[in-house]
Write a structure and sequence with these properties.
Layout lengths: L1 E7 L3 H12 L6 E7 L2 H9 L3 E4 L5 H9 L3 E3 L5 H4 L2
Parallel strand pairs: 1-2, 1-4, 2-3
The structure holds NADP nicotinamide-adenine-dinucleotide phosphate (NAP).
Length: 85
């Protein structure tokens, strides 16, 4: 099982990455995790088989933990979002 973490699973780039991953022929060997702010969006992603963790990119401990546990990380949001907080 390949553990994949995308910083976000919504938005233009994050959603595009997630869509491609879910359409991938090897999707059954992926364990996909993403961070989501909205509980409603999290529920939709969970219905697609995505491990949607509720949280913000401003929670750096959470981001670091999710990234460190993954084999592959897609940084789908510029980290300026964090630096500008
Ligand atoms: N689109 C482009 O053509 C393009 C080109 C070059 C660079 N970029 C850069 O790529 C990045 C993503 O662009 P995009 O077009 O995908 O933007 P977008 O459609 O506005 O999506 C932004 C994503 O970031 C999430 N987000 C924002 N603040 C967050 C926070 N505090 N915690 C958790 N998630 C947060 C949003 O989640 P919610 O669903 O909760 O809002 C959404 O998933 C940006 O840094 C942008 O500058 C984009």
């Amino acid at each position: 099982m390949t553990k994949i973490y995308t910083f976000t699973g919504t938005g233009y780039i994050g959603g595009s990455v997630l869509t491609r991953l879910l359409e991938h022929p090897n999707v059954n060997s992926f364990q996909i995790t993403t961070l989501v702010r909205s509980p409603e969006k999290a529920e939709k992603l969970k219905s697609l088989g995505v491990n949607a963790v509720i949280g913000s990119l401003l929670e750096l401990d959470k981001v670091e933990k999710l990234a460190s546990e993954a084999d592959v990380v897609f940084a789908t949001v510029g980290m300026s979002i964090v630096l500008l907080r």
